[in-house]
Amino acid sequence: MSNLSVISGKPSEDLAKCLAKRIKANLVKSEIRIFPDGESKITLVGKLSKKKSIVVQSIYPPVDTNLLHALSLISKAKEASSQVIAVIPYMGYARQDREFLPGEVITMKVLAKLFQSSGASKIIVVDIHSLIGLKYFSIKTKNVTAIPDLVEYFKNLSLKNPIVISPDQGGKDRAKQFADKFESEWIALEKKRDRKTGKVKIKTKDIDEIIGRDVILVDDMISTGGSIIEATQFLKKQKCNQVYVACTHALLMNGAEKKIKKAGVTRIVSANTIPNKTSVVDVSKTIAKAIE
């Protein structure tokens, strides 16, 4: 039996399969039965390594269900293996990393305790929304980035004098990192979000240097797509050529993909941290390096 087991959570089956193959580990699948009252019954299919198990489970919608499943898989793995690494490609609740308003629960602080008590000895995440959340963990944590993998994908596309753009100032480091590896220029737009309505407005004035050029909008995650839509509409008015979107986590809630395409985006490219039609970039190589 292999000294390594990769336990595949249902939301991350494809990524777990790629990872197991890459690190030559025994793949253990999970079967889930949902009872009429909504409870889940998880059964592992396969033998676990006594030495090390790696649980792969993204925590995307339904977030609470997938979180409980992740914790359950970790707990079961700990019964057999002396070491359990939790690979959480998309970490739900990462935006709840501090008390923005009085009385708010810092959910990432709660998650840190849950992962530790479940038996995880290390947590690996991919492009977590905020690194602050990882400070609450007393076990080892590692945040890896999908940017090199995304860049490799875009290098194989025939783009017209491309330029990398961040939809906001908060993502300028990400855009710079992407552009440096892609060997292109980059710009970060300025946006303003209405705290009450959530509506996004671009504050940036005219940008002459994007006229006739293909644009790669780079972001860590797309939820409803509001920022991407606003940025795309603005860039199209600036007479850019085609607009592509590169992101790690494509949640694409409430018909976001259709709305983004309608706004003028040619293609959305995302990593397989969340499985969907846009998840064409495999991050198993990047995760494998973090495990080693």
Brief write-up:
The chain has 292 residues and is an alpha/beta fold.
Mean pLDDT: 95
How are strands sequenced across the largest beta sheet?
3-2-1-4-5-6-7
Q: CATH topology of the largest domain, anyone?
A: Rossmann fold
Instruction: Specify the CATH class of the largest domain.
Output: Alpha Beta
**Strand coverage percent:** 25-35%
Number of helices: 8
Write down the Rg.
20 Å
Largest β-sheet summary? 7 strands, mixed
Provide the fold topology:
Blueprint: E1 4-8, H1 13-22, E2 26-34, E3 40-45, E4 52-56, H2 63-80, E5 83-88, H3 107-118, E6 122-126, E7 140-144, H4 147-155, E8 163-166, H5 172-182, E9 186-188, E10 191-193, E11 200-202, E12 215-222, H6 226-237, E13 243-250, H7 256-263, E14 265-271, E15 279-281, H8 284-291
Parallel strand pairs: 1-2, 1-4, 4-5, 5-6, 6-7, 8-9, 8-12, 12-13, 13-14, 14-15
Antiparallel strand pairs: 2-3, 10-11
Helix pairs in contact: 1-8, 4-5, 6-7
